[in-house]
Amino acid sequence: MAKKSKKQQPGGTPATVALTAAGVDYTVHSYDHDPAHPSYGEEAAEAMGVLPDRVFKTLVAEVDGALTVAVVPVAGSLDLKALASAVGGKRAAMADPALAERTTGYVRGGISPLGQRKKLPTVLDDSAASHGTVCVSAGRRGLEVELSPDDLARLTRAVLAPIGRA
């Protein structure tokens, strides 16, 4: 596993470019992605040697027909009812993966909550606030970014709510 600070990351992904432009402190973690691994998030946690409750996956759902981003720990799953409630909606379902990819500009397994092609309403599981730093996709499989949950919430304009299930 290679570890790079923001000053060592040339170019980067839209996520790292957005972080650098915002002047946020972050660390990039890269690892060799195994396409056969059954879970992108669990693979990231294992490769980085980080507890799964500090690694968050980015999921795209539709709430009352509007795309919404949910950021939850990889150790659990998304509570769709709680997501809908967090954004004042009634009904939520997972978005079509192709639509999620087109809208965010990222591929499945590498969707970052940062630097998306189109700004979407975002909900961050409130468990993030209990950690000094959290890890999310940096916009590519095998690449994670570690930053404070406050910076993540601020940059994504996220609502914090209990949307994850263990």
Structural features:
5 helices; alpha+beta; 30% strand; disordered N terminus; five-stranded mixed sheet; four-stranded antiparallel sheet; 166 residues; single chain
Strand order of the largest sheet: 6-3-4-7-10
Order of helices and strands: EHEHEEEHEHEEEHEE
Helix proportion of residues, in percent? Answer: 10-25%
The geometry reads as: globular
Distance between the termini: 28 Å
List the uncertain runs.
Answer: 1-10
| Percent range for β-strand residues | 25-35%
| Annotation field: number of helices | 5
SS-based structural class? Answer: alpha+beta
CA radius of gyration = 14 Å
Number of beta strands? 11
Average of the residue pLDDT scores? 90
Largest sheet, strands/sense/barrel: 5 strands, mixed
